[in-house]
Amino acid sequence: MPDYYFFLSYARGDDRDSVKQFFNDLSAEVRSYAGLPPTSTVGFLDVEMQVGESWARTLMSALGICRTFVALISPRYLISEPCGREWAIFSDRLSRLEDGDPSVDPPPLIPLLWLPPPRLPAAIEARQYLNHGMPEAYGRTGLRQIIRLTRYRDDYLEMLARLAQQIVEVATSGRPVPTHPNPLPFEQVHSAFHETGAAPAPAVSPADLVKFIVAAPSRADLAGQLLPGVDRDPRFYGELPEQWAPYRPHLDAPIADRARQVALEHQFHAMVTDLDGLREHLDSDEDTTDWIIVLLVDLWVTGLSRHRNALARFEEADDVAATSAAASVLVPAGHDDEQTNTYLSQLTATLSQVFGRRMSARLDSFRSVIISPQSFDADLGVVLERSRNRMFRTKTVQHQLPARSGQRPILRGP
Q: Fewer CB within 10 A of the end CB, N or C, for the chain?
């Protein structure tokens, strides 16, 4: 198990390239001050967004043993439940060291402004630290901008040196943060930034609401052949359609979980339903423009007549040309799914019988045969942002303004 001098916590979508640069630069400085070889692993950074049991164990292990916790605070960070869980896990460890006294110096929990948010939750306000010697732009534009602008290069290098010194001092002090293997699965840890028992309230704007409709078989649906003469491999499916996981074995988690996470990174409030939920949606008087609609479609689902009819009905009802409903279709098909690759032309032909208008028009709202989780993240991110922009153009959008909290808090770095 690596000896993690620091855990870098950040929100997905916050300029990953700059985050990785900061992580690499900080790791190099920590090695220097700790006198470690250049190849030593001193920090933990979850650079790939993964979900599932294996990923959760790795993440929880790193959170349970890391010596310091560096949080890159941004608006996305504050609405991210995974970031709130990471903060909560390390904060719980720290409370065992502090015995109720948060004045441990130097502090093992180090919040840094990445992109300055308009306000901070109580969990972070309780740890407002003064950033001595930081350039004036830090409080105004945040650390990300200091990394990107060459005129702050000297300030950035000085900050890295002092931060690395602080991390090494904490790591080698006589009062280490107690290790704490959390008994709860990561998904069950309560976020430090959200109220107990309640999800973060969605924004007033419909442009921030997305409904994912999973169009996939359940394992019970595989009893009949979805393609004549072919028995579909059941390992990609679960008891419910929402448990469809097209990227196994590379990514064990359902695609719906990953879609929710991508939506959160783009500051959407998301819900997930299956084709039965789509039928209820079509049969109700609900305004279809109240939510951004994204269908996650398995190529094999069109082999089920009931499901194929529901998709065809949706396609007929949706005004593809107007796009005011911002309905989009994504078709994941993992490159490790040999069966899908073998019958791809037949499956695509059947799919075109349902979504022929979208496919022939080569619309941006239709993304077919997405072969990797990374491509899925990128395609879904583009689809969500474009759908949001369409909603802004076609609907009257109102956002609730956040309450003012007085002077902007200043967080202490090194």
A: N
411 within 8 A of 131, measured Cβ to Cβ: yes
pLDDT digits (tens, 9 = 90+) for 34-57: 999 999 999 999 865 455 556 778
pLDDT tens-digit series, residues 152-204: 888 889 889 989 999 999 998 877 888 876 667 787 888 888 765 444 444 44
Task: Give every CB contact of residue 349 below 8 A, 6+ residues apart in sequence.
Answer: none
Please name which of 116, 51, 16, 8 lies closest in space to residue 381, comparing C-alpha atoms: 16
User: Nearest Cα to 324, choosing from 386, 397, 388, 391?
Assistant: 391
Q: Which of 124, 78, 74, 81 is nearest to 102 (CA)?
A: 124
Residue with tokens 């959170």, as numbered in its chain:
63
Exposure string over 61-75, b if 16+ CB within 10 A, otherwise e? bbbbbbbbbbbbbbb
Which tens digit of pLDDT belongs to each residue from 86-119? Answer: 999 998 888 877 664 555 667 899 999 888 777 7
Count, in order, helices (H) and strands (E) of the chain: 14, 9
Cβ pair 164, 29 in contact under 8 A? yes
Q: Using CA atoms, how far apart are residues 378 and 374, in angstroms rounded to an integer?
A: 6
Q: Is the peptide bond before 106 cis (omega within 30 degrees of 0)?
A: yes
User: What letter represents residue 244's amino acid?
Assistant: W
What's the CA gap between 257 and 268, in Å, rounded? 14
Angle at 334 between CA 329 and CA 338, to 5 degrees: 130
Instruction: Tell me the H-state helices in 74-181.
Output: 75-79, 81-98, 122-125, 136-141, 143-148, 153-171
